[in-house]
Write a sequence for this structure.
C-alpha cells in the first residue's frame, strides 16, 4: 500500500498562543504530516502572524471575515484536497494539541483494519488527562459482531459520529460526499458532517491516538451557551430535516437524545430567558430556512472560496493544455471531459438590441457550433420592442437546444440581468454571449474542454466587424498565462463576450456587481485576486460587432464616473496600488473625454501596440 499524503488542517480564530502550541505539536509528530494548512478566520489578535512566521512554514489561508468553524473547516478541507492533493486530511481546532504519536497511531490502526476506513477519531483529553466530555465519539448502534471484531483487531471501536477535534478523513469520501455545511457557522457542523460521511462508511475511534483539547473549562455539550444556543437549535433542526446524514430511525434516536440534552441545558442555565429567546429563534429559522450553498456563504472571502468551488464542482488542477492557437487546442472526443460536463450559454438581450442581430447571434451559439450547448438561458432585461419579442417567441423553433427565457419586468442593467441568468443556468460551466456578436463554430469545442479540465475562466481573442461578418477587421488579442494577472492591474484582460467560466467561481468572487460598462472588469479582477485559474485563447473565436456608436459608448462623463468608481474599488481591495490607480485614472480620464474620432484612432493604435492586428 503506498504511503498516503496527510495534510493537517487547523482552523484558527483569536487564540494565537494555542495556535502556536498546536503547530509545535504537529511539527513534533513521530510520523510527520506532509503539509499543514492553517485557516485563519479573520483573527483580530496576532494569530495570523503566528501562523505565517511558524518554523514549520504552514500554508496559510487568511479569510476576509469570520466564517465560523463550519466555514473554516469547509475551506480547509477543500484546500487540502483540491489544492494540496491530500489523500487524508487531519482536522482540528487551534486549541487541539496532539501528542507526538497521535497521527502515527491513527495511521497504524488504519493499516491494521481489514477494510476501507472513511474517517477516524482520536481520544480527546483535557489538560488534566481526563476524557473530554465535549468530544466523545458516538458508538455505532447495532454494529455487527464482525464489525466489532475487525475494529478491535485494529485497536479501535466503530463509531457513528465524531468531532472536528482530531478527525482524520479520507479525501475520496470528501470528493464523493462534499464538504461540511458552511452555513452552520458554529456547532453541529462536525456532527452533521461525520454522520453524513459515516452513514455508509466506516468510522473508527482509536484510543491509542491522544490529543489534548485545551478548552478554558472542562464542560460538556450541555453547558449554558447563552445566545449561541440559537446555533445549537437551528443547526440540529437543519440536520434532522435538511440533511441526508441520518436514517429515519436515527432521527428518532438522536432527536430524543437532543431533547434530553436541551432540557439539561435549560435546567442548568443561569439566564433561561436568553436561552429561550435564542432557542425559539433557532427553531424558527431552522424550520423556515435552509442552509445556503457554500459558494454563497463564502462569497467575498477569496481566495479560499475558489478552492471550495473547485472541489464541489469536481475539478482538480488544470491539466497542461495548449491554448495559444485553435489548431493546438484539445478537440472534444466521445467520452471526453467535454462530453461529461454539460454547459449553458448565457445571453442577455434588451430593448436597444437589434432583432436580426439577436437571431444571428443565437444561431451562432446553437445551430452553428461543432460542440453544442446543453441549454441557452436568454435574459430579457426589461420590456422590448415587437421585433425582438417576435424573435424571442420563436427561439425554440430555431434549434433543438433547450431554451429558457428569464423575463425581467424592468430594465435592471447588465450586471443584475447576468446574475438572474446565472441563477437560472442548470450547469456549472457557462459560456457568455451577447445578442449582437457572432461565435465562430469552433468556439465551444475549444473553450469548454479547458474549463472542464480545471480552469475557472477562459476567454479568447475577438475580431471586430461593422456590418458584414464576412468582412472582418481588427483582432483584439488578450494576454495569456501569467500575463493575465499583470495586465489586469491596468485593463480588462478578457473580452467579455468571449468568456466561458465556472458559475461557482463567479459566485465565489462575489458575482457581477452593477457598474456601468465595467461590471465584467470588476468581476474578472476579483476572480484573479481570488486565485482563479485563468487563460485566454489567442485565436479569435468571437466576431465582435462595432457598428455605429461603439466608440461613442467608450467615452463620456458617465463612463468616466464608472471608471473612477472601479479604480477606487480595486484600490480599496488591494488589487491595484496607489500609483497604479493614479496612472489608470489619468490615462483613462483622457481617453474617455476626448472626441469620438480621436478616441477611435487612439484605441486602434493602442490595440495594435499591445498585440492586436489587422489581417491581410
Amino acid at each position: 500500500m503506498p504511503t498516503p499524503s496527510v495534510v493537517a488542517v487547523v482552523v484558527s480564530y483569536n487564540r494565537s498562543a494555542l495556535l502556536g502550541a498546536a503547530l509545535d505539536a504537529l511539527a513534533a509528530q513521530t510520523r510527520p504530516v506532509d503539509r499543514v494548512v492553517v485557516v485563519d478566520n479573520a483573527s483580530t489578535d496576532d494569530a495570523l502572524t503566528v501562523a505565517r512566521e511558524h518554523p514549520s512554514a504552514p500554508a496559510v489561508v487568511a479569510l476576509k471575515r469570520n466564517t465560523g468553524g463550519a466555514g473554516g473547516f469547509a475551506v480547509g478541507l477543500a484546500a487540502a484536497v483540491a489544492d494540496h492533493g491530500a489523500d487524508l486530511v487531519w482536522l482540528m481546532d487551534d486549541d487541539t494539541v496532539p501528542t507526538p504519536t497521535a497521527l502515527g497511531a491513527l495511521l497504524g490502526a488504519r493499516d491494521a483494519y481489514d477494510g476501507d476506513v472513511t474517517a477516524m477519531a482520536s481520544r480527546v483529553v483535557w489538560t488534566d488527562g481526563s476524557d473530554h466530555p465535549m468530544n466523545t465519539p458516538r458508538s455505532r448502534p447495532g454494529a455487527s459482531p464482525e464489525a466489532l471484531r475487525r475494529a478491535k483487531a485494529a485497536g479501535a471501536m466503530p463509531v457513528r459520529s465524531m468531532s472536528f477535534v482530531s478527525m482524520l478523513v479520507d479525501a475520496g469520501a470528501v470528493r464523493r460526499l462534499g464538504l461540511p455545511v458552511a452555513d452552520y457557522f458554529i456547532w453541529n457542523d462536525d456532527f452533521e458532517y461525520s454522520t453524513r460521511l459515516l452513514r455508509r462508511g466506516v468510522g473508527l475511534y482509536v484510543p491509542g491516538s491522544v490529543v489534548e483539547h485545551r478548552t478554558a473549562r472542562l464542560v460538556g455539550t450541555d453547558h449554558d451557551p447563552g445566545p449561541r444556543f440559537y446555533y445549537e437549535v437551528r443547526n440540529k433542526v437543519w440536520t434532522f430535516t435538511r440533511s441526508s446524514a441520518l436514517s429515519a430511525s436515527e432521527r428518532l434516536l438522536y432527536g430524543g437524545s437532543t431533547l434530553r440534552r436541551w432540557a439539561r441545558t435549560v435546567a442548568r442555565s443561569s439566564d433561561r430567558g436568553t436561552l429561550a429567546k435564542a432557542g425559539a429563534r433557532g427553531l424558527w429559522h431552522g424550520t423556515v430556512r435552509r442552509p445556503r450553498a457554500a459558494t454563497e456563504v463564502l462569497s467575498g472571502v477569496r481566495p479560499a472560496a475558489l478552492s471550495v468551488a473547485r472541489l464541489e464542482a469536481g475539478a482538480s488542477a488544470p491539466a497542461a493544455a495548449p491554448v495559444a492557437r485553435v489548431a493546438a487546442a484539445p478537440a472534444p472526443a466521445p467520452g471526453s471531459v467535454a462530453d461529461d460536463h454539460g454547459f449553458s450559454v448565457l445571453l442577455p438581450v434588451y430593448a436597444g438590441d437589434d432583432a436580426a442581430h439577436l437571431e444571428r447571434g443565437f444561431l451562432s451559439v446553437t445551430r452553428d457550433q461543432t460542440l453544442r450547448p446543453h441549454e441557452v438561458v436568454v435574459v430579457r432585461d426589461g420590456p422590448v420592442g415587437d421585433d425582438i419579442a417576435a424573435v424571442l417567441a420563436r427561439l425554440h423553433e430555431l434549434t433543438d437546444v433547450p431554451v429558457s427565457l428569464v423575463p425581467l419586468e424592468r430594465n435592471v442593467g447588465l450586471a443584475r440581468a447576468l446574475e438572474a441568468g446565472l441563477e437560472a443556468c442548470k450547469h456549472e460551466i457557462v459560456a457568455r454571449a451577447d445578442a449582437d456578436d457572432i461565435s465562430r463554430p469552433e468556439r465551444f469545442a475549444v473553450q469548454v474542454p479547458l474549463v472542464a479540465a480545471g480552469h475557472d475562466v477562459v476567454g479568447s481573442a475577438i475580431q471586430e466587424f461593422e456590418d458584414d461578418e464576412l468582412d472582418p477587421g481588427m483582432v483584439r488579442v488578450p494576454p495569456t498565462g501569467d500575463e493575465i494577472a499583470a495586465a489586469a492591474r491596468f485593463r480588462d484582460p478578457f473580452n467579455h463576450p468571449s468568456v466561458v467560466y465556472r458559475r461557482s467561481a463567479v459566485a465565489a468572487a462575489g458575482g457581477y456587481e452593477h457598474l456601468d460598462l465595467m461590471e465584467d472588469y470588476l468581476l474578472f479582477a476579483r476572480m484573479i485576486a481570488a486565485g482563479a485559474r485563468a487563460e485566454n485563447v489567442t485565436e479569435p473565436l468571437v466576431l465582435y460587432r462595432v457598428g455605429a456608436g461603439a466608440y461613442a459608448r467608450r467615452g463620456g462623463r458617465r463612463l468616466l464616473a464608472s471608471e473612477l468608481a472601479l479604480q477606487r474599488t480595486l484600490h480599496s481591495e488591494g488589487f491595484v496600488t496607489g500609483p497604479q490607480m493614479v496612472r489608470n485614472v489619468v490615462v483613462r480620464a483622457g481617453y474617455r473625454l476626448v472626441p469620438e474620432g480621436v478616441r477611435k484612432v487612439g484605441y486602434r493604435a493602442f490595440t495594435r501596440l499591445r498585440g492586436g492586428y489587422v489581417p491581410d
Remarks:
- The longest helix spans residues 248-268.
- DSSP finds 24 helices and 19 strands in the chain.
- The CA atoms of residues 465 and 545 lie 5 Å apart.
- The two ends are 61 Å apart (CA to CA).
